[in-house]
């Protein structure tokens, strides 16, 4: 479904969010205080305008109140990012997502009303480190402090066996929720499903069990 988004700050982070949303068919308003940035990204969004997002009147003038979701992708100017979130929440924007540079910045953004704060550098750093330590883990979602869902490349020693034979539930306390077999996704696979080379298992469980499994060869 086509949705409307506004992205404030067209740096690397903001422009990447804006163009991804736009390419997926959504209506995207891009806002930046810097005219050159607006000029550079005008073809990657539906509309691009110059405005200072710390000024309520400027945001009203560009019709920000028509948007349910606004992303504040200003980072370095911490004061500007906090003020922008404050103004947007005061204007009644339902969902405000903001980028934080560090933990303190994030806490303040939540205090002034941000609905979701993202830490792109910290999160990407964690992902890279995880991948370096466990190259078989292609991606993961942290569900709670100790639990995750991971996409794990099957170790060679497991190919040619069925899920029942592998019995990951008994051996690792893990559940296989899907198998990606060269692009064919099997959701809730049956116990008789055979594991082939290059298959990717989507498994859920405790982080320490996932780690034991992902480090098998
Ligand atoms: P990135 O890390 O995403 O590349 P950056 O290093 O270019 O960002 P940031 O300080 O995070 O720099 O700013 C992102 C964008 O936000 C810049 O293009 C900047 O012009 C814009 N910006 C900064 N302050 C405001 C403001 N008050 N109103 C609107 N846009 C702003």
Question: Could you explain the architecture of this structure?
Answer:
The chain has 217 residues and is α/β, with parallel strands linked by helices. The protein has 2 domains: 4-118, Rossmann fold (3-Layer(aba) Sandwich); 123-214, Alpha-Beta Plaits. It is built from 9 helices and 11 strands. The strands form 2 sheets. It has a 6-stranded parallel sheet, sandwiched between helices. The chain has a 5-stranded antiparallel sheet with strand order 7-8-11-9-10. Strand 7 (137-142) and strand 8 (147-153) form a beta hairpin. The longest helix is centred in the middle third of the chain and has 14 residues, at 120-133. The model has no long low-confidence stretch (mean pLDDT 94). It binds adenosine-5'-triphosphate. The site of adenosine-5'-triphosphate has 21 residues, from helix 1 and strand 2.
Instruction: Find the count of extended strands (DSSP E, 2+ residues).
Output: 11
Helix content: 25-40%
Whole-number mean pLDDT: 94
| Total separate domains | 2
Whole-Å distance between the termini?
A: 43 Å
Specify the number of helices: 9
> What ranges have pLDDT less than 50 throughout 5 or more consecutive residues?
none
> Major sheet: order of its strands?
3-2-1-4-5-6
- Reading the helices and strands in chain order gives EHEHEHEHEHEHEEHHEEEH
Overall outline: elongated
What gyration radius follows from the Cα positions, in whole Å?
A: 22 Å
Pfam families: TrkA_C, TrkA_N
InterPro entries: NAD(P)-bd_dom_sf, RCK_C, RCK_C_sf, RCK_N, Trk_Ktr_HKT_K-transport
Domain RCK C-terminal: 135-217
Organism: Thermolongibacillus altinsuensis
């Amino acid at each position: 479904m086509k949705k409307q988004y506004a992205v404030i700050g067209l740096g690397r982070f903001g422009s990447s969010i804006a163009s991804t949303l736009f390419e997926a068919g959504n209506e995207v308003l891009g806002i930046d205080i810097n005219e050159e940035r607006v000029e550079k990204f005008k073809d990657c969004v539906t509309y691009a305008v110059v405005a200072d997002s710390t000024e309520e009147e400027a945001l009203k003038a560009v019709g920000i109140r028509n948007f349910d979701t606004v992303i504040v992708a200003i980072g370095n100017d911490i004061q500007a990012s906090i003020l922008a979130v404050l103004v947007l929440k005061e204007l009644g924007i339902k969902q405000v997502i903001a980028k934080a540079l560090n933990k303190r910045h994030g806490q303040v953004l939540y205090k002034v009303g941000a609905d979701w704060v993202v830490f792109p550098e910290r999160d990407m750093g964690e992902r890279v480190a995880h991948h370096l330590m466990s190259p078989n883990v292609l991606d993961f979602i942290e569900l709670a402090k100790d639990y995750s869902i991971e996409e794990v490349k099957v170790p060679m020693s497991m190919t040619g066996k069925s899920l029942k034979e592998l019995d990951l539930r008994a051996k690792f306390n893990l559940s296989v929720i899907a198998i990606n077999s060269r692009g064919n996704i099997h959701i809730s696979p049956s116990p008789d499903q055979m594991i082939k080379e290059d298959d990717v298992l989507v498994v859920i469980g405790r982080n320490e069990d996932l780690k034991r499994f992902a480090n098998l060869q």
